[in-house]
Write a structure and sequence with these properties.
The complex is a heterodimer. Chain A is mainly alpha-helical. Chain A contains 22 helices and six strands. Chain B is α+β, with helices and mostly antiparallel strands. Chain B folds into two domains: 220 residues, DNA primase, PRIM domain; 98 residues, no CATH class. Chain B is 46% helix and 12% strand. The chains are: A mainly alpha, B alpha+beta. Chains A and B meet through helix 7, helix 8 and strand 5 of A and helix 7 and helix 8 of B.
């Protein structure tokens, strides 16, 4: 599919190996890697690429304006791919190549994961193609050998006026047109950027990238299915499968925040009100904590969101039962609690029903999930559902009063960047936390964890 | 609805066998019919995920349930009746006709003859033009051949595309066709018509069709800008400002036929002083504005949701419309100009006709069911030589 020279090279660390040479910065990943890498590299490289894909996913979900600019820092940090001379960049290209195949192994097992992986990898591919330098890109394109039917010069001549009209220009621009089924280029069909005849789309050379990315998504999807079939024969239950499962889990739950890993403190029922008062809770959880404490109310979604959060920050099931029981009282009597709520709380801990271990919601899920419909409901993301005026009053009651900060938060909200608002509020309410965080807050648990760790490191006087 | 009469209709008239062949795409039952979802509306209940072995079983259930309407959904990867017994993901939609839905209530801002759910032969012409434009685009641009157009029973039309290539389209591909055909934006986006020049070939061809009908259908029959108030709607869409000012003072508050106002635009444009920009560019701007108006007033308005979804259900041809009593007849495009929306057969009327003559071939539904039968036979795979003894 693309030119690929293999050559034996001199001993590396005393071993003779077969190295794949990376002539181009872009890669369609048609050939699997052949070198050995360590198990640590395997995991680390997979994680690094995952971070990049998640950043792309977040940016797409929150609909930021300039995707490239938003994700550039993350790509630079975890998966850089320099332009120009390949001598300096072989290492980067190798990591890019290997990490892609590591994630293929992790994400091939379900339709949902495959779709997500293909979508995000295609976005990454597009970003890189757009930032590639002109010469490199052309060489890469020339190296590809797709079976795209090229319209004959006669046909182009015959259809010239229509082809021209479809290009949206008055002057001639392309002589080469690829003839593909219209189903291969839905993006070009919907925007009427190609001429259609009898089910064939005439794609001018200038729109080759679209063809290329569709082809790439298709290839990737097919190979993922093949990989999924091959996995049971790998015999890697002990060594690699656990790593892969861990990666796949992370893709679903978006839990890569470094500060979350390794939290072992136990949170007791009687600590909650104090924790909330000490600014350890993000606004969403604070809202539910207050509603529960003052009105003794938590509707279905709030029970799930808040209950799983408490579990996520380290509250055991026994403490959870104590906490909920005492906060529902006196509105909900003991026997009613046992009948109606005990089961649900134990269910969150995977102790009832399907016994599935439930994960706390992340910000994306909370933001995209439903928001309160009336005053009794307290779930959702307050930065999203509160009117600007009401939100400002809340923030002022949390001690955020300066105009500039409030307007900054307001502008994040107007661009639907609610997690940035939340991150900003954390910074404003924790002015002494000088830790440099690599990521924005993407889960309520991360907010708590930062605040909790910070408090532990600065013993009260 | 008179259920006794309706029962006679579904017992004697509804073309089960042809519907079976049409949905099955072959003579012997295959997954396209066997694993096809059929959904019934029964008074207030909605019964989904039904499927049948053959036309007879389907008919028996229609007569048993006496639905007020029924709809067809996708072909599933397994029998939809068994979906609960199967593992998750084993019973998912895999195939469906590509469908279009046009509803004349979407034309409310441009029709003057009727409002809301009402429809007459004047505004039916909007639907006729929509069919003309979409039919040629689906055939020439997308290469589809197996198209069935159906009156939707009150104020719209459905189109079912049954080519093999259409059945397997995924949702992104369906959306892309819908977007290609959908030229008008929504009013919330501000400008309704936003077409780049030069026109894309589909737009150019559509414009030719629209232009040939515009004078009669819009200017004469709908006459949308007759009063001075209405004329503001026209002026709002024109530029440059000095042209608009000249027209406004020329027209005053008089009632003027729309065709006269339309002609005045050109007369006044020619009389604009040469100083107001280069004559050519003013002429171009006026021409573009007029083209946009023609698109806004006549171009097909689609309910794209029906086209996009692989699992979107759509009412069956030949069902009785629950509120008009009219039968959702299949439309023969060769006779589209003769179609009279007030003369569409009603279920109670044809049952009476049958009572009078006692001959099922002599009712006013006959032409429509015959057309449908013919259409289905034409589109079925040709019988193999061995079957016909034709060596």
């Amino acid at each position: 599919m693309f030119r690929q020279k293999k050559r034996a090279i001199e001993a590396v660390d005393g071993e003779v190996g077969r190295h794949i040479d990376y002539p181009y910065r872009m890669n369609l990943y048609t050939a699997p890697p052949l070198d050995e890498i360590t198990q640590d590299e395997f995991e680390q490289w997979g994680l690094d690429r995952l971070r990049v894909l998640q950043e792309i996913d977040n940016a797409l979900t929150t609909k930021v304006g300039d995707l490239e600019k938003t994700v550039r820092p993350t790509i630079q940090k975890f998966l850089p791919l320099s332009l120009g001379s390949k001598r300096n960049s072989d290492k980067e290209r190798k990591k890019d190549h290997y990490s892609h195949f590591i994630l293929r192994l992790a994400f091939c097992r379900s339709e949902e994961l495959r779709k997500k992986f293909v979508r995000l990898e295609t976005e990454l591919f597009k970003l890189r193609f757009a930032t590639d330098d002109f010469k490199d890109r052309n060489e890469f394109l020339e190296s590809l050998e797709f079976n795209w039917e090229i319209a004959s010069p006669d046909e182009v001549d015959r259809l010239r006026s229509q082809l021209l009209a479809a290009s949206g220009r008055n002057t001639d621009v392309a002589d080469t047109y690829y003839k593909v089924d219209f189903t291969q280029v839905p993006y070009l069909v919907e925007s009427r950027r190609v001429f259609l005849k009898g089910g064939k789309a005439y794609v001018p050379e200038t729109l080759q990238l679209t063809l290329l990315t569709t082809e790439y998504s298709k290839l990737l999807d097919e190979s993922l299915i093949k990989t999924a079939r091959a996995i049971p024969r790998l015999d890697e239950e002990q060594r690699l499968i656990p790593i892969l499962e861990n990666l796949a889990e992370k893709m679903i739950w978006q839990e890569t925040s470094a500060e979350e890993i390794g939290h072992t403190d136990t949170i007791r029922a009687n600590m909650i009100d104090g924790l909330a008062a000490q600014k350890h809770f993000p606004l969403c959880m604070l809202t539910m904590q207050r509603k529960l404490k003052t009105d003794h109310v938590a509707k279905y979604t709030a029970r799930r969101q808040y209950g799983l959060f408490l579990k996520g920050i380290g509250m055991g099931v026994e403490d959870a039962l104590v906490y909920w029981r005492s906060n529902f009282a006196p509105r909900i009597a003991d026997d009613k609690f046992d009948k109606e709520y005990r089961y649900n709380i134990r269910y969150l801990y995977g102790l009832e029903g399907s016994r599935r271990n439930q994960r706390p919601f992340n910000c994306i899920q909370i933001i995209n999930g439903d928001q309160p419909r009336d005053r009794e409901e307290s779930h959702g993301c307050p930065y999203k559902y509160l009117a600007p005026q009401a939100l400002e009053e809340k923030l002022q009651s949390m001690g955020i009063t300066d105009k500039q900060s409030l307007s900054e938060i307001r502008s994040y909200n107007e661009s639907s960047l609610y997690h940035l608002s939340c991150t900003k509020v954390y910074e404003l309410t924790h002015p002494n936390d000088k830790t440099v965080y690599s990521e924005r807050i993407m889960t309520p648990q991360a907010y708590f964890q930062r605040s909790w760790n910070h408090a532990k490191e600065t013993p009260s006087k | 609805m008179d259920f006794d009469t309706l029962r006679v209709y579904y017992q004697r008239f509804f073309p089960y066998q042809d519907v079976f062949l049409w949905l099955n795409h072959d003579r012997t039952p295959q997954a396209d019919f066997l694993d096809r979802e059929i959904a019934f509306t029964i008074e207030n209940a909605y019964v989904r995920y039904q499927s049948y072995m053959n036309a007879d079983a389907f008919k028996a259930d229609v007569l048993r349930l006496m639905p007020t309407r029924f709809e067809y959904g996708p072909v599933y990867s397994a029998n939809p009746r068994q979906r609960k017994m199967l593992p998750k993901g084993a019973c998912v939609p895999v195939k469906k006709e590509f469908c279009l839905d046009i509803d004349l209530s979407d034309y409310n801002s441009v029709r003057t003859c009727c409002t809301d759910t009402a429809v007459c032969n004047k505004c039916w012409k909007f639907a006729t033009i929509a069919i003309e434009i979409l039919n040629v685009a689906l055939r020439e641009d997308f290469g589809f051949q197996n198209l069935l157009w159906v009156f939707s029973g009150r104020r719209g039309v459905h189109c079912w595309v049954s080519d093999a290539a259409a059945l397997t389209l995924d949702e992104a591909q369906r959306s892309s066709i819908a977007a290609y055909l959908q030229v008008l934006g929504t009013s919330t986006q501000g400008k309704l018509v936003n077409l780049p020049r030069p026109f894309h070939p589909h737009i150019a061809r559509s414009f030719g069709i629209l232009k040939s009908h515009f004078k009669q259908v819009v200017l004469e029959e709908q006459d949308p800008w007759r009063s001075a108030d209405q004329a503001e709607e026209l002026l709002k869409r024109l530029q440059p400002a000095d042209l608009v000012a000249r027209l406004r003072s020329k027209w005053g508050s008089k009632e003027i036929p729309s065709s006269q106002r339309w002609a005045d635009i050109d007369t006044e444009t020619r009389q604009l002083p040469v100083s107001s920009g280069s004559r050519n560019s003013v002429g171009d701007a006026v021409l573009a504005a007029k083209q946009d108006i023609i698109f806004e007033y006549l171009y097909p308005r689609l309910d794209a949701a029906v086209s996009r979804g692989l699992n979107h259900l759509l009412k069956s041809p030949f069902v009785v419309h629950p509120s008009t009593g009219k039968i959702c007849v299949a439309l023969d495009l060769k006779k589209l100009d003769e179609f009279d929306i007030d003369a569409v057969p009603r279920y109670d009327a044809i049952v009476k006709e049958l009572d009078a003559t006692n001959d099922i071939t002599k009712t006013s539904l006959r032409d429509y069911t015959e057309y449908f039968r013919h259409h289905v036979q034409e589109t079925l795979p040709k019988k193999r030589a061995a079957d016909t003894l034709d060596f």
